[in-house]
Amino acid sequence: MRLFTSEAMREADAEAVRRGYPSLLLMEWAGMKAARVYRELFGKRPAVVLAGKGNNGGDGLVLARHLLLEGVEVRVHAAEGQTGDALLALQALLAHGVEVRPLEEASFRKGEVVVDALFGTGLKGPLSGVYADLVEQVNRIGLPVLALDLPSGLPYAPHVRATATVAFAAFKTLHFLHREACGRLFLAEIGLPKDLLAQVASQLEEGLPLLATPEALAPLLPPRPLTAHKGSVGRVGILGGYRGEGLRYAGAPVLAALGAYRMGAGLVHLVAPEGPLEPLEAVFHPVPSPTLPPLKVEALAVGMGGGPWGKAWALAALEARRPVVLDADALHLEVALAYREAGLPAVLTPHAGEAARLLGTGPEEVAQDPLGAARALAERTGLVVVLKGNPTVVAEGGRLSLNPTGHPALATGGTGDVLSGAIAALLAAGLPPFEAARLGVFLHGLAGDLLGEEKGVGLLAREVAEALPRARRLLEGGQAPWPFSRV
Ligand SMILES: NC(=O)C1=CN([C@@H]2O[C@H](COP(=O)(O)OP(=O)(O)OC[C@H]3O[C@@H](n4cnc5c(N)ncnc54)[C@H](O)[C@@H]3O)[C@@H](O)[C@H]2O)[C@@H](O)CC1
Ligand SMILES: Nc1ncnc2c1ncn2[C@@H]1O[C@H](COP(=O)(O)OP(=O)(O)O)[C@@H](O)[C@H]1O
Ligand SMILES: [K+]
C-alpha cells in the first residue's frame, strides 16, 4: 500500500475532476463515512464540530448533517468564508435548520465528542492565532476527538491529539509519522475511481513510500519444507565483540544470535573475542581480534558490541562475500562504501544518532524527517538502510517503506542487536535485502507489540527474540493485526 503526500492527494483530487467526477460526491462520501466511524466509536454521544473554511471543514459540515439525521445532537462552529464544495456543504447543513456559530465562540461541554475538521491536507505552515488557541484548548480539555483526514496542525506544533482519525481515500505519510497524534486509524473509501490512486502514484517523479502491511509481507516468509535441515534454511555468522579498554557490550553478539535463531536460522556461528557460552545452540569461534575464520554461512550480521573494533570486523567480514547486516559499531561511511564497491548486498541498521553521524547532521534533523534521512543515506551508500525508531523506515535507492509495528517497550538495551540477527536470518534464507529488512523490522516490531500489550514496559531484549516465532506465526496464519480499519 502506498502512502500519499498532501501534494499527491491534491493531484488525485484534480485527476478525478479532470475525468469529470463531481468533487462534491467525494466530500459527501468523506463526511458520511466519518459519521459512520463516529457512530461506531461514540454511539449517540453529542458532538461539537469544529470546521475550517476549506474542504476539510466541508467534510465536517457533511458529517454534522449525517449525525443530525441519525439523531445525534450536534453543535457546529465554523470559520467564515467557505467557497465551492464547502459552501454547498454549509448550505445543505443550514437547510436543516442548524445554527452555525463562529469558531471564536467555540466552547466544550462534558460528555461531548469533538470533531476536528479544521485543516487537512491543505495546511500551509504552523497554526497561529485563534486556530492555535483552539487546538491547544481541545488538547487540554480531555474530550475524545475524532479527526477528519488528519489531526489539524500536523506536521507542526501545536496539532490536535486525536482519539481516532479517519483518513480519506488513502493514508498520508503523516499518519504513520505521527501515530501518537492520530490515535486509532480508519481508512475511508470515498468513491474515487478504482485505478485513479495507482495511476497518480505511478506518474509521480519521486515514488511514494510503501506501508508495510501483513498482506504485502506474508508472502515473503521463507517456506519451511518437510525436508528442511539446519544446513538448508539459512546459516548466519555473527561477528562482533571487543576486548580492550572502555565500554563493552559483551552480550550484543549473543542477542544477535538469539534474533537469528528465533527468526528461523538453521545454524548460527558466533565469532567473538571472548568465546561467549550463550546461546548454547551456537557454534563458537573465539578469536583474539577481528578476523574471519572459515565459515559455512549464507549471511552475516556484523558490528554488535564491537566498540573500537567495529570497523575492523566489518572489513574482515567483506572477505566472506555474503549478504550482510552492518549494525552499531560497524556503521561507518568508509565501511558502507567498501561494501558498495564490492557489490555485496548490505543492510545498514542505524538508529537516529548513528544515522546523523553517517550523514553529518544532528539526531534532531534525522528525527524531524526520517523518510528524507533514510533516503539520503540509502542514496549516499547505495545500500539498504533501516532507520530505527518509531516509525522505522526502510530505504533502498528511491524506494521507501514505513513500518507500522513497534512498541515503546522496545526502547531498551539490546533490542537492536536482536533485530540485526533477525534480518541476517532472513538474508540467509535467501530474501533480497530490502525485503529481508522490511519483514524483519515488521516481525520485530510485532513481537514488541505483543509483549508490550501483555507485559507493558520492562522488557528484556532476549524476550523480544523469544516472541519472534509468535509474531511469525501470526503473520503466517493471516492474523497479524492490521494497523487500521477500513470503512
Ligand atoms: N480527494 C480529495 O482530495 C478530497 C479531499 N477532501 C478534504 O479536503 C481536504 C483538503 O482541503 P483543502 O485543500 O481545502 O485544505 P484544508 O481544508 O486542509 O485547508 C485549507 C484552508 O486552510 C487555509 N490555511 C492553510 N494553512 C493555514 C494556516 N497555517 N493557518 C490558517 N489557515 C490556513 C487555506 O487558506 C485554506 O482556506 C482534505 O484533507 C480532505 O479532508 C474531501 O473533501 C474529499 C475529497
Ligand atoms: N519508542 C519506540 N517505538 C517502537 N520501537 C522502538 C522504540 N524505541 C526503540 N524501538 C526499537 O527498538 C530497537 C532499538 O535499537 P537500538 O537503538 O539499536 O538499541 P540497542 O543498540 O540497545 O540494541 C529498534 O528496532 C527500534 O526501532
Ligand atoms: K482535521
Automatic annotation (TrEMBL):
- Quaternary context: Homotetramer.
What does the protein in this record do?
Catalyzes the dehydration of the S-form of NAD(P)HX at the expense of ADP, which is converted to AMP. Together with NAD(P)HX epimerase, which catalyzes the epimerization of the S- and R-forms, the enzyme allows the repair of both epimers of NAD(P)HX, a damaged form of NAD(P)H that is a result of enzymatic or heat-dependent hydration.
Q: How is the cofactor bound?
A: Binds 1 potassium ion per subunit.
- The answer to keyword Kinase applying to this record is yes
Q: Which cofactor is recorded for it? A: K(+); Mg(2+)
Q: Which InterPro entries does the UniProt entry name for this protein?
A: Carbohydrate_kinase_pred_CS, CARKD, Nnr, Ribokinase-like, YjeF_N_dom, YjeF_N_dom_sf
Q: Where does K(+) bind?
A: N56, D116, S152
In the UniProt record, does the keyword Kinase occur?
Answer: yes
Binding annotation for (6S)-NADPHX: 55-59, 120-126, 131, 149, 252, 303, 351, 417
Catalytic function, reaction form: (6S)-NADPHX + ADP = AMP + phosphate + NADPH + H(+); (6R)-NADHX = (6S)-NADHX; (6S)-NADHX + ADP = AMP + phosphate + NADH + H(+); (6R)-NADPHX = (6S)-NADPHX
Query: Which residue numbers delimit the YjeF N-terminal domain?
Result: 9-198
Mind listing the GO molecular function terms for this protein? ADP-dependent NAD(P)H-hydrate dehydratase activity; ATP binding; kinase activity; metal ion binding; NAD(P)HX epimerase activity
**Transmembrane region positions?**
none
GO annotations under biological process? metabolite repair; nicotinamide nucleotide metabolic process
- Report the sequence similarity comment from the record: Belongs to the NnrD/CARKD family. In the N-terminal section; belongs to the NnrE/AIBP family.
Q: Where is the YjeF C-terminal domain?
A: 213-475
Query: What does the entry list as the binding residues for AMP?
Result: K388, G389, N390, P391, T392, G416
The record's SUPFAM superfamilies line, in alphabetical order, gives:
Ribokinase-like (SSF53613), YjeF N-terminal domain-like (SSF64153)
Q: What is this protein called?
A: Bifunctional NAD(P)H-hydrate repair enzyme
**What EC designation does it have?**
4.2.1.136, 5.1.99.6
